[in-house]
Write a structure and sequence with these properties.
- The structure is a single chain.
- The chain has about 600 residues and is α/β, with parallel strands linked by helices.
- The chain contains 20 helices and 12 strands.
- The protein has a 6-stranded mixed sheet.
- Helix 5 packs across helix 7 and helix 5 packs antiparallel against helix 11.
Length: about 600
């Protein structure tokens, strides 16, 4: 996992290496300051101190303090650059990976979960990385240096810290162990919270229309309370860190002052033989080193807690990064789609490999280039699943889909999808001008090409009615245009791709029948070479098609023209007469 995430450091390796170097130098300066300070205090206690020596010591301390400050600032700056750069690259890598996912990969993750991984989880990894570069390097080194310097001053008294360290370490270990488990559970609550927020904001119009604000408030409050309770429980345990730390610090100072003063007066430590040259400055320095030792221990405990939270985030990011797209380019892909011929050769399909039932079963269908094909059927009959296989948004479970005389799995994905324009059921526009949205179809499209595509899609008229015309700004999701306008803009955007196959997946459902007829007429007259596959709920939208495919429970029930199906197919008859009934039985 570390190897995987470290790939995102890339151009920030220089800062990642400089940061721990700055931390090492800062700790060395701080250790030397305390050690030199000991000699200065001892010198000042003499009856006639040498002022030149005092000034020299003072100047040395100023130099060391300045160096420590500069190294500390350098570590902070380099650490910030390394960590923010790392998070930028990691977020970019994660987003790029998600863009490579097939529809089946996306189905396996919740949208809210992916959002959490791109935001909160990356932020946690950024914080952990900066902590590793700075505090994880600084604390152990500071602890080791303080112990070494303490033993250099007086190894007998320094054993006080060796006695206290295990006690403090055990207490902190218990705190870390409990809080790590709580944080691991609490952190997963972010997904539930983000899911509640996303659903509510995305569906705010529906919430208001059904007066469900109070229900959504309760739902959000529950998710928020669950997360708050877990974090509060963990924080209560972590809050024990400070009093435990203070207890051991004051115990160490008490023991050091008692035995240090006794040693300074008697020049003996307890019952150990021998004369010890021990002064007040030594006691002061040992106290300072003791604070460093115990503070480092507490910081290490906090680091373990934070890193455990970050580890959970890292695992979630790793899960996405190691997920392989179920749809991949072949080794030597075809780079040209010859025409818009489409053949379904004994195709069966299910969304999950271990699914019990196929969504599509034994589909055999031939579509010639330039034909207009209508597809109708009840909800859940497999209409959208059928067309999703053409552009390889999903792969078949059995059989093959052939486009332009070749299996779609032989084509380069980008080439295949550039030759197939799909207007899905859920029409989506992005924030930006109408021109910017249309150029998703062709980034180099001229104004004339955009106008022509919009005229075919019956969008030009309402666009010109806007004060800013084609420069009108579209809000996120196209919320400032109607459903019918959004659909027509999406059709125009698809036409700008100049595809060989155009798939309209119920994409005129919000358009009136008259406009629908005009769009179909425009497609037939202006784009006769394009194979057009129209999925619709209205018979009027497909009755002029060269072929009409009737889908029923994942099977093709019948294929034929309007007149043929009206005479021979019960499903088509029911749909047609239910939509074209005029008056009641008496009036007919």
């Amino acid at each position: 996992m570390i190897k995987l995430l470290s790939k995102s450091i890339r151009e920030y390796k220089k800062y990642a290496l400089l940061t721990p170097l700055m931390m090492v130098l800062e700790v060395l300066m701080e250790s030397f300051i305390i050690f030199i300070g000991k000699d200065l205090v001892n010198l000042m206690q003499e009856l006639n101190p040498d002022m030149k020596s005092v000034l020299l010591y003072g100047l040395l301390l100023v130099v060391l303090a300045t160096c420590s400050l500069l190294f500390g600032i350098g570590g902070a700056v380099f650490g910030a650059r390394a960590s923010t750069g790392f998070s930028k690259n990691l977020r970019h890598d994660l987003f790029k990976k998600i863009q490579e996912f097939s529809f089946s990969n996306i189905d396996s993750f919740k949208t809210s979960s992916l959002v959490t991984r791109l935001t909160t989880d990356v932020q946690m990894c950024q914080m952990a990385f900066q902590m590793i570069l700075r505090i994880v390097i600084r604390c152990p080194l500071s602890l080791i240096m303080a112990i070494i310097m303490g033993f250099m001053i007086n190894y007998e008294l320094a054993f006080i810290y060796i006695f206290i360290l295990p006690l403090l370490g055990f207490a902190l270990f218990l705190i870390v162990r409990v809080t790590m488990r709580i944080f691991r559970v609490a952190f997963t609550k972010y997904d539930d919270l983000n899911n509640s927020i996303q659903e509510n904001i995305k569906g705010i119009r529906v919430v208001k229309a059904y007066v469900r604000e109070d229900y959504e408030k309760v739902k959000f409050g529950k998710a928020s309370d669950d997360m708050q309770k877990n974090f509060l429980r963990a924080e209560r345990i972590i809050s024990l860190n400070n009093p435990i730390m203070q207890f051991f610090i004051h115990l160490a100072i008490l023991l050091l002052c008692y035995f240090g003063s006794k040693t300074a007066i008697t020049h003996h430590f307890l019952v150990f033989p021998g004369t010890i040259d021990f002064k007040v400055g030594d006691i002061s320095s040992l106290n300072m080193y003791g604070l460093d030792i115990l503070s480092s221990m507490m910081m290490l405990a906090m680091i373990f807690v934070t890193l455990s939270m970050s580890l959970e985030s890292a695992h979630r990011i790793k899960e996405v990064m190691l997920t392989q797209s179920s749809i991949k380019n072949p080794e030597n892909p075809l780079m040209e789609v010859k025409n818009g011929d489409v053949v379904f050769d004994n195709v069966s399909f299910k969304y999950k490999v271990n699914g019990r039932k196929n969504v599509l079963e034994s589909i055999n269908l031939k579509i010639e280039s330039g034909q207009t094909i209508g597809v109708i059927g009840s909800t859940g009959s497999g209409k959208s699943s059928l067309v999703n296989l053409i552009s390889r948004l999903y792969d078949t479970t059995e059989g093959s889909v052939i486009v332009g005389g070749e299996d779609v799995r032989k084509y380069d994905l980008e080439v295949l999808r550039n030759n197939i324009a799909v207007v899905l059921q859920k029409n989506l526009l992005f924030s930006g001008t109408i021109k910017e949205n249309l150029r998703w179809g062709d980034k180099n499209a001229t104004d004339e090409e955009m106008i022509k595509a919009c005229q075919t899609a019956c969008a030009d008229e309402f666009i010109k009615a806007f004060p800013d015309g084609y420069d009108t700004y579209i809000e996120q999701g196209g919320s400032n245009v109607s459903g019918g306008q959004r659909q027509r803009l999406c059709i125009a955007r698809a036409l700008l791709k100049k595809p060989k196959i155009l798939i309209l997946d119920d994409s005129t459902s919000a358009v009136d029948t008259k406009t629908d007829a005009v769009i179909r007429k425009g497609l037939k007259e202006n784009n006769p070479e394009i194979t057009k596959i129209i999925i619709a709920q209205r018979v009027n939208s497909v009755m002029d098609a060269d072929k009409i495919v009737i889908m029923n429970d994942g099977h093709i029930d019948a294929v034929g023209k309007h007149d043929e199906l009206l005479k021979s197919n019960k499903i088509y008859q029911e749909v047609y007469y239910s939509q074209n009934r005029v008056g009641d039985e008496d009036e007919r």
